[in-house]
Amino acid sequence: MRREAENFWMHQLVTIYPFGMNDKVDGMDGFATDMNCAMKQNFKHYFSNPVPNVKRRTKFTVNNSTSTNKLTEAIQKEIPENYEIRDMYQMFRSNKNMETTKLLKEVENTRKDKESLLASKLLAIIKLNRKKHIVTTEKIPIFIKVDFLNSIMEKLGIRNMIHDSKIERMLHLKESNCKVNLVYNLVKNNFLRFSNYNNTLKILTQNQLIRIMNEECECKNSPEFVDTQYGHIITGNTAVIECPKLRTQIEKGTKHRQDFPLTLSKFRGILYKLGTDLVESIARKSKDRELLKSKTLVTERLISIGESRWFHKIGDQQTVPADNMCHKIDRTTNEKFIVTCVDKAANNFAITCKKFYLMKLSEELGITINNKVISFSGNDTYELSTKDTTTIFSEYERVYRKRKITANTEKLNIPLIFAIPKFHKVPIKYRFIAGAKTAISKPLNITIVRILEVVKNYIRNYCNQTKNRSGWNTYWSVNSSSIVANNLKNRKSRSDTLFCADFSNLFTSLPHEDIIDAIMYLTTRTFEAQNGKKEIHCNQYRAFFSHQYHKNYTPYTLYEVKYMVEFLIKNSYVRFADRNFVQIKGVPQGGNASPLLADLMLTAMEIKYLGTCDNLVKRELSVSFRYIDDLFSLNENIKNHTAAIYGNVLELNRTDNRNGTAFLDLDIKLCNEKIEIKTTRISVIAMENTGPDHIATVVDPLQSSAVHDNVEQPMEEVDDAEVKLHYAEC
């Protein structure tokens, strides 16, 4: 409860400083510094929150119908002694069906004894019946049209939301524009509703796999969508879908959310939850005290909007025809095709023949099917595991228990392996991913990521100090294209050719022992340089070296780090057709730690080789950059050193045209010893998207250069429509 002066300042003067920030205003000092609201128990506070010593006014509230009946009986007994209360009570009894908001306002204005307990009881009954009236009399659903709910918070500042007029303007609910139809619910996007690869692989058995492989697919009936390389349907053209409702929704992209009606009662709850969660998340990231203080006010203001008068003035109520909605993928499409997203263009759907999709997964795992016989012969990357699911879970639980890693294994499972097509490759290739939010290895992945991030930061800082003294760059890994652009800026090339390539078998062919040795080489150097701090303290959010005890942190020695890294690499399992497969070569795919493991492994190889080279070679290879598995160098002579750096196992495929290349989102060209750099960003916005614009970008900016090569046009001449058409025709 706030002080009386503060309530007056907030509600009567409609100030934007209601959160204890009025100390600088003349005559308005001594307000409560914090709100006495109950935060969520799982919310982490960044400052102390003492409850102000404010005298609270007692209020009479009603929670159920039993209390209402008791209050009514008490009021009837006291009515003869108080004529004013009797008149108000009779007015309430005779006008139950009228708008109770107006009645409540009249009662509050006319009663003289505001501290009367009897009057408080009467007001409690009126408020309770007013809420009941809104719910019980809502026979015809009333729908309200607003922008996507997140845009309420995006377009309005948190502190400005205390003004009713601004929020009403945002909701398009002026007096002259009250005839509206819809409200957008926070429903799942199209990708979660219509992609069927996950559900298909979950229920896939060996008998079903054999049956699908022995049946003839229907690709011959639609030759216009068949890929000439494989002879099966692999397309992004939605015309292959027979259901018109599903086709209409899929054309809007993976991030589109359908328009679903929402009743008033549910709308209030969504507003409250949205306001609470958003304010807390923003405050948690920015550590802003004022946002935490304003949380209750924002949510209460949203609720008051849901209970205000214009909710009952909406006329011409209309419902959305159910025929225009499509809740899930239809049965015909589910039986014939696998629907996924497109690699490097995640807002586009890819439709693949179901038989061909399962065939590619079987080839990746080394499964062969002859008539009705299935054999798990394995290959260089995967082999059939001899351990059942219970044994795998018990091994992970033992590691979590010994290393004090928090994990709820009851909600975890062995991840499925799936594939997404690369439409920017000719011929079309597939990216195989083995990961899930509920993977049994995820807690271990997160712990290793926190530890190896400390190792990576130390190695990068050490190499940068060496570069400042000698001028030789021995750390090639970059996190973004801006580092590359800044290094190439105002630089002249001594060569007319450059080098750009990517690793084709980084995640499939490298022996596990080589990966572990390379990562532990950097980890050991990091531990040895910590001046006696032999333990790294880690939790779910961060890690650091220290020789002292820290609450809520688990210390790990070098031996324990090596054990966890080795266990994760050698125990990477996937599930397909009721069988468990283990990865025997390559960096584990799909896990949280997979990119970091690959990056550190290549970094160790590069640092080891450059440490044995003379100064001439170091100077020659100084202008080299690598983003995980994409390598770029301003000197083409690096091709003479790649075999010595990365060994004969890793294969590099060149992607440059000698005097120009696309690296990340940069278009780099050599012209008369000058380096021309252009950014190649494609921003394709899904049409009719109900979400904010920033979530509708369908092309990853860091990977848009791959789209550039396949469009076969200069990037500055390609417009959004042509890029979208390119994916539709694929």
TrEMBL record:
Gene Ontology molecular-function annotations: RNA-directed DNA polymerase activity
Species this chain originates from: Ditylenchus destructor
One Pfam family per UniProt = RVT_1
Residues passing through the membrane, by range: none
Q: Which PROSITE patterns match?
A: RT_POL
Sequence ranges assigned to domain Reverse transcriptase in this UniProt record? 401-699
PANTHER family associated with the record: REVERSE TRANSCRIPTASE (PTHR21301), REVERSE TRANSCRIPTASE DOMAIN-CONTAINING PROTEIN (PTHR21301:SF10)
Q: What is this protein called?
A: Reverse transcriptase (RNA-dependent DNA polymerase) domain-containing protein
InterPro entries recorded: DNA/RNA_pol_sf, RT_dom
Q: Which UniProt keywords apply?
A: Nucleotidyltransferase, RNA-directed DNA polymerase, Transferase
